[in-house]
Amino acid sequence: MPGGSLLLLLDDIASVLDDVATLTKAAAKKTAGVIGDDLALNAQQLTSVRTDRELAVVWAVARGSALNKAILVPGALAISVFLPWLVRPLLMVGGAFLCFEGVEKLVHKFLASHAAGPDGVLDETAAETATPAGTVKPNAKHDAGKQDGGEHEASKIAGAIQTDFILSAEIIVIALGTVAAKPLLTQVGVLILVAVLMTVGVYGLVAGIVKLDDVGLYLSRRHTGVLGSIGRGIVGLAPYLMRFLSVAGTAAMFLVGGGIIVHGLQPVQHWVETVEHAVETIPWVGHLLSWLVMPIGDGLVGLAMGGAVLFAVLVAQWATGRLQSSPANSGRHLE
């Protein structure tokens, strides 16, 4: 009967939507580390933009992010359909890259602290030398003063969109790994929903963060009493919020990246599960402590993987430099 067919169709649609909602929630949890880093990094990159242009720049970067995901989502779905065996290796590469980025940030902070002078002020020349490739220089804000305002704004937007492409690719690949075994329609729904939610959520929060100090300043100047106190509190809180986002984003990168590596390597996952079961047998506190085993294991594996990738990158850079500077490759022996 036509009525029965319509009910069956509606039931199928409701089932697909339910699967999409459930899997989107699972994918969002797994991409939390990338999202936290994306949020902190974009907020930091846009801090030196003129106050009256902050929202316009955020909007421009958000449009670029939407375009990035419009390219990445069909590409990920094509891989899922035609090269499904490639999903797990891409997921492992994305996890390893997350771990590498986390270690690179830690190394950069360590080198920057040693490049600081006796008074604690970071020397600009030393800071530039200590900054690893792919990170924003500490003196970029100083250099920006030498540029035209429009050129500086355009460079900020371009840099933020390029960074977003890398982080968006990681988000899409991680989300694809969550739904790789599901029907194509469910994959399409989850990836599109994840892309939309992440773009709106991240850049909505970025807009709020970059204007947070302006809101606090407005309240502190225009109001007295409770509102004025709230404004001064917001102004004082804003730098700590940025610092917290940076630390939390870095920690989440190890947890998420390490978790991907652990789940992709069966022997490592089996070892972590064995330790978890052993800790659970401890009297009184075993059940509580067992909850910490998996996150700690993921974090340690992520730290080790990131260190290994960074070491490989440094060795490759050293070998490439030695090769380029060797007499055999110099023009002195060319006749």
Question: Which structural traits does this protein have?
Answer:
disordered C terminus, about 325 residues, mainly alpha, single chain
Helix and strand topology:
Blueprint: H1 2-30, H2 32-45, H3 54-82, H4 87-115, H5 124-130, H6 140-144, H7 149-179, H8 184-210, H9 212-222, H10 225-264, H11 266-280, H12 286-325
Helix pairs in contact: 1-7, 1-8, 2-7, 2-8, 2-10, 3-7, 3-8, 4-7, 4-10, 4-12, 7-8, 9-10, 10-12, 11-12
3D structure, described in words:
The protein has one domain. Helix content is 83%, strand content 0%. It is built from twelve helices and no strands. The chain is globular, with a radius of gyration of 24 Å.
Radius of gyration: 24 Å
The residue-averaged pLDDT reads 75
**DSSP strand content:** under 5%
User: Spans of 5+ residues with little confidence (pLDDT < 50)?
Assistant: 118-122, 124-147, 330-335
What oligomeric state do these chains adopt? single chain
Major sheet, described briefly?
none
